[in-house]
Amino acid sequence: MKSAALKRNLLLLTGPVAAILIASFPCPDPAHPKMMLMAGITAWVAIWWLSEVIHLAVTSLLPFLFLPILGISDLKTVSAQYMDPVLFLFIGGFFLAFAIERWGLHRRIALKILSVMGDSPSKILLGIMMSAWLLSMWISNTATVMMLLSAVLAVIYQLDHQLPNKQHHRKLASILMIGLAYSATIGGMATLVGTPPNMIFFRAYQEAYPANHDLNFLSWFKLGFPLSLTFLGITWLILRAGIPEKEMKGSFDKSTFISDYNNLGVFSRDEIKVAGIFILTALLWFTRADLDLGTIKIPGWNKLMPYPEQVQDGAVAIAMAILLFIIPSTSENKRSLLTWQETSKLPYDIILLFGSGFAIAKGFEQSGLSEWLAGQLIVLKGIHPFILLLVITTMVTFISEFASNVASIQLVLPILIALQHAMNLPPLLLLVPATLAASLGFMLPVATAPNTIVFSSGHIKVKEMARAGFWADLIGILLISLFSYIFFT
To answer: What is the reported pLDDT for 475?
Structure first.
């Protein structure tokens, strides 16, 4: 007991001590004197997150406390990060998940997946990852994970009955959740509309190189799809290697899943209502913004609104959530499809975790730390293009572990455009891999929205995500650099 207490106290001290040491280093850029303070806070938060020495939600309050106190950002700006619009996509998505769970639709979806893919844990993992990967090519990664979360949780619940060894079940649950998050992020790389950094890059490229007509939906897909598919396959193999498949051999009987699915009978009216809202939500997410296919442009329904730019995925999620509170149940009198009492499970600690990620990203921006890190790329002038790609993707990946993927690519693109002019390299050779690398960031729960959402399930430890994420980041950096070098040189 004494050694455990001593270890905890040492870990508690390590965070602030590391922050003080880093903050005491000379600032490399006198124009941004708060840079090292921000680096110190980030180190403190990262140490406490990774060690889980105190609850993650408590650690998540550190940026709220110290960014204003140290003058990195004002309190109003920091507070706004803890209620970022993306959080309402998270909240609305969870309300939809609660309704799916309340009427048993998640169990029906899960048993259907298991009745098809339930021969082995690796096949179940593949089925989940393929589903998320295909969806996230067309709708946001966050929305994809929110849509599939209830079904995957139900899969984990069903597997609990098949696996008598609880340690094996916990391990498999963690891997399935990580697979869901990673595959959604990887799927977004395949298309120009799959993730915001891709679209930001496309607009910036058109503005910076108006005479170039070498980039459209199809040309991106020619690179993005094989890269994304290869990345998905390797990630599946990495995660599969962590499954103790030999020890689980004989535990999986698909006929049981088929029998359980058949015993559910026909859809109830309430299941149909919830399924209808679920499908409507997906369709609205899919068709909200313009879909630019190169030669064909399909206008989004948000153009029908007086202020199209104000209609985001979060607004769709909240609108559908309100419907759940309005539409009455058929099978139970005097209640709607979702009641407020049923939302008490909303993971407020994860909302704080999410908000702290946005706050750190804002601190990186306002302290000048992101700009300085991105600016170091200019020293790469003159080295071999492939080495250049490796360094660029590594640096962007590092930034995206702490800053949002949108912030990462917005910071890096202007510097890379200047670097491209100085080195006289093909523009796409530098800009495309940096854009793809902005979608990486698999190690921390706050690195991407999919990571945060699956972490909220309680089935993953920070160390498990960090370990799997390190290999996913490494593979992503190598694949992006290799594919880009082959395609653009």
So the answer is: 95
